[in-house]
Design brief:
heterodimer, A: alpha+beta, Alpha-Beta Plaits, 4-stranded mixed β-sheet, 3-stranded antiparallel β-sheet, 8 helices, elongated, disordered C terminus, B: Fumarate Reductase Cytochrome B subunit, two-stranded antiparallel ribbon, 9 helices, 2 strands
């Protein structure tokens, strides 16, 4: 929502030079253990409460998903998937959806407004709303389809991982509220260690494909899941198996833009030198009649 | 002997041309602000980033609309003919300033025609792709993959258009006597005889 003095910035949108890097901070992560989630939505409520968000009352669609999708007022949403991984064995998979806080954020890469999206050195990706121009590029840049552009103020919104709380040493509101300990918060290293423990527990309980979801295609994420079926992340309401920044975004925002700027500036410079070398094309009569022109 | 002038453009076409040029500058600068971080300072000309984002598509649509009028008035004279191929083969001579080696051309030479079609295609692509990610009006009607493609094509055709305009402006400065075709609507007979001899013959009936 707004930039925080208590957190150091590691990456800044539409900025070609390095941010200050003298201080090193510990990378944090939120671990969401899908296997321990009971779908109570305390995290959704805590998110609304801490961030002072109130979504419109929606309509029922015959599922527990409420609201139906992420919105500018709902930065996290529980996704309920009924799946039969094995035949005649129904599983109710409940995934807390929201920003994954990518190490290499597609939103930040595609944003054209300097400083509208930052990645703090602790790994949190935050939208700095006062710099947002409302172009919607973050929506197309995100490999997880998370940011939502508000129709009210044309600013993009998403989970901030409670950067304001983390900045003063508190855990995110959702983690604080979770009654089963399915949401944990700490250093990324600790979360991966804890996740590995959970995975071995799950494997003992017969979930042979249990695993931690920390997709390397986006450099890893600062929100990681423990999944019972990590070999099939798609069954968790379409969690992408191998999310990456689209080549359309990375090519264009990578090499193509500086080359294109060089081509445009180069064309003007080439024209100037061409004129100086070759000189203008003049017709004889024109030269004779300049006084009349 | 007093200089004789030939009419090259009617006033309404000249006014339309300059209106398009004005819109090109506005759409171009506001678009370049989002093109590369080093050009973001252009957004200051339009009242900041948010205003630049709001105004840019309107500049663009108005430019395309005005260009469409120009297109329908000029496209017939810009149809590529076999004779243009010879001109292109000699374009190296042209760039070296060896005007005498160039085959005679009509109202437009192959280079001008090329710029005309380049601008027409780029503007069409800019319009179609621009609508596809125009927030908040139309963008949400298009799937995200399509919008990603649209953003890339939009930026690429913008570069094409800008390069075309650079060529267009440079050629006008380089070939003396050209600019008055748009500032006054007329060119000197000498200019026409040298640069567009077939058009000169058509206009005057003289060799």
């Amino acid at each position: 929502m707004s930039s925080l003095q208590s957190l150091d910035i590691a990456k800044r949108s539409a900025t070609t030079t390095n941010p200050p890097q003298a201080r090193k901070t510990i990378e944090v992560a939120k671990l969401i253990d899908v296997s321990s989630c009971i779908g109570c939505k305390a995290c959704q409520v805590a998110c609304m409460q801490w961030n002072d968000l109130r979504d419109d009352v929606g309509e029922t669609h015959g599922t527990y998903d409420n609201p139906r999708d992420l919105t500018p007022q709902s930065w996290t949403v529980m996704r309920y998937s009924e799946v039969e991984v094995e035949k005649d064995r129904l599983e109710w998979l409940i995934r807390k959806d929201g920003c994954m806080h990518c190490e290499d954020p597609g939103c930040l890469k595609s944003c054209p407004a300097p400083g509208a999206i930052v990645k703090y050195s602790n790994g949190i990706v935050d939208f700095i709303s006062e710099h947002c121009v409302g172009c919607g590029n973050c929506v197309t840049g995100c490999p997880f389809d998370v940011p939502r552009l508000s129709k009210v103020d044309n600013k993009a919104y998403k989970c901030s991982l409670c950067s304001d709380r983390v900045g003063v040493g508190l855990e995110p509101a959702c983690a604080k509220a979770c009654p089963t300990g399915a949401i944990r918060f700490g250093t990324k290293e600790d979360m991966l260690d804890y996740g590995a423990e959970r995975v071995s527990d799950l494997k003992e309980r017969g979930y042979a494909n249990a695993g931690v979801y920390d997709p390397q295609g986006v450099g890893g994420t600062h929100v990681v899941y423990v999944l019972q079926h990590a070999d099939k992340p798609e069954i968790y309401h379409g969690l992408p198996a191998d999310p990456k920044i689209s080549p359309l975004v990375s090519l264009w925002k990578g090499a193509a833009k500086p080359l294109a700027v060089a081509a445009m500036v180069g064309a003007v410079v080439a024209g100037f030198f061409h004129y100086m070398k070759v000189g203008p094309v003049e017709s004889k009569d024109d030269a004779d009649n300049k006084a009349d022109a | 002997m007093a200089t004789r002038y030939l009419r090259r453009y009617e006033d309404r076409d000249r006014m339309n041309h300059w209106f398009i040029a004005l819109m090109f500058v506005l759409a171009g600068l506001s678009g370049l602000a989002f093109f590369h971080p080093s050009l973001y300072f252009f957004s200051a000309l339009f009242g900041g980033g948010v205003w630049t984002r709001i105004l840019h598509p309107f500049f663009g649509v108005v430019m395309v609309a005005a260009f469409a009028i120009l297109f329908f008035r000029l496209w017939r004279e810009n149809v590529i003919t076999p004779a243009d191929r010879e001109w292109v083969a000699h374009s190296g001579d042209m760039l070296r300033g060896n005007k005498a080696a160039m085959p005679p051309v009509g109202k437009y030479n192959a280079g001008q025609k090329g710029v005309f079609w380049l601008m027409s295609v780029c503007l069409l692509v800019l319009l179609v792709t621009g609508v596809m990610f125009w927030q908040p009006w139309f963008a949400n009607s298009f799937p995200i993959l399509l919008r990603r493609i649209a953003v890339v094509l939009h930026a690429a055709s913008a570069v094409g258009l800008i390069l075309g305009v650079i060529m267009h402006v440079y050629a006008a400065i380089w070939v003396k006597g050209t600019v008055r075709a748009m500032t006054r609507g007329t060119v000197t007979e000498g200019w026409a005889r040298q640069n567009h001899p077939l058009w000169h013959r058509e206009m005057t009936g003289k060799q």
